[in-house]
Amino acid sequence: MKSITVISGKGGTGKTTLTAGFAAVAALPSSPFQKLLERRENIVLADCDVDAADLHLLLQPEIKSEHYFEGGKLAYIDPEKCIACGKCVEMCRFDAISDDFVVSPIDCEGCNVCAYVCPVDAITLNIRESGKWFISDTRFGPMVHARLAAGQGNSGRLVSLVRERVEKIALEQNLEYVLIDGPPGIGCPVIAAISGTDLVLIVTEPTLSAMHDMERILGLAEHFQVPAIVCINKYDINLNNTREIERFLWENKITLADKIPFDLAMVRALTEAKTIVEYAPRKRIALIVENIWRKIIDELR
Fold it and tell me: Shortest CA distance to 210 belongs to which of 23, 55, 14, 65?
């Protein structure tokens, strides 16, 4: 079993669209004339962008099981025990306790300070449900995905849970590849998504913000000793910046998987909830997506 995480450093570069395209390449015949015995890759998918999950919008999974995620604790003040001394309000650095001693579920971080300073033990910390995670079937194979509730933390823990479950499915079903749609940024969820994976594909675009964040995410991958390759999406919207990215990759001996042009066919495919590989399998952009997937497999092998 090999695991691949598609990340971006910033949102909006197209990593989820590419992840779905790779799943289609792995699962579907590349042409109607393909030999039936030709080997395809068996994959299981994971959407680890739990703060803003959207892979399910494109793959439209059939949910097989649904589970609650207990991501933290929430303070509760027993009004019958409370003597209104105000110590909890004074010590709460998150301003989560009102003047009438009611705890805000949005602001409370479950740090336990209020319970520690309460002189009459009127405060308890209860486990709270911070989101849900799902095991589903898609047209390309099984998928594990999750949704963190609004305002909740511990997304890194939820990402780790999704990865644990998806790797368990891969082992149980003897699947070759775990394909992970990672979160943006370089924070805890990203660290949980890339740690211990066999390869990361960084999707960037020729904008100054994307170039800056590509360098940051490359540094993160290097720190955790995860091999990284890069693809440039919508490379033709700014050819000067694209050349700058290529120069940076060449100087730092980082593999450029390929460059993907901007194509309205990709937009039209998304409006029909299809990958570009399904919508226009013979278009150049679909062939480039397939080529990048083949390079990923070659890197892993």
Answer: 14
β-bridge mates for residue 134, sequence order = 66, 145
Instruction: List the CATH number of the domain containing 286.
Output: 3.40.50.300
Mean pLDDT of 243-256: 96
Tens of pLDDT, residue by residue over 78-111, are: 999 999 999 999 999 999 999 999 999 888 888 9
* Rounded-to-5 percentages of helix, strand, coil across the chain: 40, 25, 35
Q: How far is CA 16 from CA 103, 199, 265, 267, 271, in A?
A: 37, 16, 16, 13, 14
Calculate the alpha carbon distances from 64 to 134, 170, 194 in Å. Answer: 7, 16, 26
The domain that holds 90 is classified in CATH as: 3.30.70.20
SS3 call for 222: helix
| Alpha carbons 292 and 164: distance in angstroms, whole number | 26
- Picking from 263, 264, 251, 259, the residue whose alpha carbon sits closest to that of residue 295 is 259
For 293, the domain range is 2-69+130-300
